[in-house]
Amino acid sequence: MRKIKEVLRLIKDCKVSQAQTAQICKISRASIQEYLMRFKASGLNWPLSETINEIELENRLFPRDKRQGVKRPEPDYNYLIQEIRRQNVTMALLWEEYKQNHPDGYQYSQFCNLFKTYSKKMNYSMRQEHKAGEKTFVDFGEGLSFIDKKTGLKTGTKIFVSVWGASKYTFVQATTGEDLHSWIKVNVDALEYFGGCSKAIVPDNLKSAVTKACKYEPTINPTYADFAKHYNTVIFPARTYRPKDKSLAENGVLLAKRWILAKLRNNIFYSLAEINDAIAELLEQFNDKKMKRLGKSRRELFEALDKPQLMPLPDNRYEFAEWKKARVNINYHILYDKHNYSVPYTYVHKEVEVRATVNSIEIYLKGSRICSHRRSYRQHAYTTVKEHMLPSHLKYAEWTPERILQWAQKYGDAVKEIAQQVMDARKFPEQAYKSCLGIIRLGKRYESDRLNNACQRALNYRTCSYQAINNILEKGLDNQTETTETSITMNIDHENIRGAEYYQQEEIADLAPVFSKN
Question: In 3-state terms, what secondary structure has residue 369?
């Protein structure tokens, strides 16, 4: 009121313009014009009477709204919280619907302020506006234990929890560990329980999900990325040291422990299946339980919000596949799980990616599949496709059986003979290239004569392998002469050596009384 009085004094008494008055009083010209209009409408005269104090002046200039005592209809906040999570629903649209039902209701700005104030009274997870069908949050927690009937040993478990962002609909399952195979299985089981997939999955930064954690560009585990591709979803890891990014998952784990695991704490289980059967029964009750703040259950919200937005599951269940890197050897084979698989010869020395399932091996180069094989579990064996073998192409004709034998001949005849036998033992000579090169390269560590003697000794004892020849050289057996070896096994004639015939006769004589009694 003092500032309004100063404005009136400057304009009425001092005849100062409105622009200059605005600069002096540090207020806008629009405010000055409003004050003058209110003063004129109040019926007051200038100068003011001494009997008018600031309270009366305020009441005359700013009369109370006749409708101020009328209570405006409050919005249905629970309905607003539910609807704002739907796709493409905005506060402006909800306000328009509110005004249609309540024409005398709040204006848009006050409507938004009331909703914001109400949201602050709720916990953080409720204040997050997760759109329907947008995200599911997944995480592990400590689970129950079961006893092995055979050994009596107690085995601990982990519980996997998957929670929908909009409806809080929850899936819980126990597993024996956090390894990659277990992680993929529980994720697949969760999607099948929901009957569909969200547009994004938000995991924590465990190794099974994120190979390398990074605030800006985290590296997703190749198998988990392959899983996401199969279900046409996106992996969106929570930021490191940002627990609010996965608050729903952590809260879901906490609620699962309180409402499910706590009820089973006194039960004795003898298998993982028994634990999951008990969890499944209580999980249905948990999802059907009404939430106090919203007045609806998780299942009801899921049916209304998330389920209509679900992305359909593919026809086939995801088959667990492990990804590893390998390099194509000069024999155009790659090694995976101690078995060799052929690759087209043009990819020699290239680094490739191997996708391995229970039944198949697929080999990729820069995202493109170049070949596949049926998986074999024979260790140190070869799976070779004829079409992958080396043709008469000059660029790749560097390694041939003839060249291998020619190189081996430089170290001696025995080395050449060993290389020939090693190649003859394989279905395709190319499968033996690595073994032959390993034997020949021993000539860089040992003298040629020693290598040739070692190979000759291996030929005598029919142990034609790289490992056998390497052992002979390491132990210095190549320096032992053949006469020393044969002298150990030659027959010695001496009167104290009776021979095998003597003991055979003694045994027959000892058994004679037994046969006579019978």
Answer: strand
